[in-house]
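Q: Hi! First time doing this. I have a protein sequence and I read that you can turn it into a structure. Is that right? Here it is:
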Amino acid sequence: MILASQSPRRRELLRLITTDFVVVPANIDESYRTNESASEYVCRLAEGKARAISDQVAPGEIIIGSDTAVTHGGYILNKPRDKQDYLTMMDLLSGTTHQVYSGICVLHGAQLTIRSVRTDVTFRELSISERLNYWDTGEPSDKAGGYGIQGIAARFVQSINGSYTNVVGLPLVELEAMLNGAS
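A: Yes, that's right. Below is the predicted 3D structure, encoded as structure tokens:
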């Protein structure tokens, strides 16, 4: 099995299902397309990652591609470019509910399965000092939406409706069902 992702969080999550996999990072253009929904966006990227490495692996290998996006009000919140971008994201997320979408692609020979998973996450109201202190930890800088639910930001989460592992970056229940169908 091949994981087409550089994300350490996805590797950790996949290890909960199997330890029999290798990582082959995919390098694709992750630009958002006009009028593309968040679900379409993450599915396109997940498929793109799986297909990008398909010629680098042995025939018959199962390839997993995945991507995750945080959205608020229809806007995709990628990894923050800088501190100001992060603070803008936190202004949007503080005291509101946002959506996290993950696209999963399982490519096994000619068989392709793609799925999108959505989770609603509600943040409590965050003070300016909490936002600034969180930025100073360094944790938000490489995370979609500027936070990691599995880290310090867990204390900001008032409620979650849906898959926790989806918010971390790889929805395990859905992935395992897809893998069972691919083998």
